[in-house]
Hints:
The chain is mostly helical. Helices cover 53% and strands 1% of the residues.
Amino acid sequence: MLRFALATAFVVCLGGGSAEAARCGGDFNSFVANMASEAQAAGVSASVTSSAFGGMTQDGAVLAFDRRQRYTFNKSFEQYVSTRVGPGRINGGRALLQRHAALLSRIEQQFGVPRQILVAIWGLESDFGKGDMGKLPVIRTLATLAHDCRRTELFQGELLAALKIVQRGDLPLRDLIGAYAGEIGQTQFLPSSYIKYGVDFDGDGRVDLRHSAADVLASTANLLHTNGFKMGQPYGEGTANFEAMREWNRALIYRKTIGYFADRLMGQ
């Protein structure tokens, strides 16, 4: 989610006290120590920061990937959608629409986002939770990117948000695994969006976007609803709902693919 719009993502505010932002560049261990102090001033416990940062080193592969990433599409819509939406994925999505019909009805009633949009996003981001959600330790990934001076403010905010996910008990550190920009879970939320939009929809007392389909789908619906998505309205290019999906992904081709996939799920 939002991987093509990271340059415009917001920095999360965790509340509580504040500390001077850590300076990027320079000695990595000193930077991490400053981030730990900043996190503790924002309400993250010393035990969490110690566990999260203990023995940490930079991840050169993350920096290499980030520096060659352009966050743009170099394919036409027709080329892109042909690689992402095929008969197997459509049939899989239709099966999940049936399997989760009661859950999706509850989500539609509470958040006003149609089920086919949610299942389309779920399929595109992680093949409905069966595909690659990333294999990188999120804290290390974000600390590496925050230390790099190109977008340090953005990634310092994401790093603080990731620590908050652990602090509030949503995911343990061993499960805080994600992609190359720190995206987490079955619909690939950045940590700041995890904090802002995450919903405990299965009632177990925590927001689990890696393992709980209920939390994943409701949180995705909450993000879209909060940004103006309206039930019963069209969602094609040029509509208000298409614009509401900008918070999910700013790329026109990606949003058009969501709509195309959603229509195929409904037999249109």
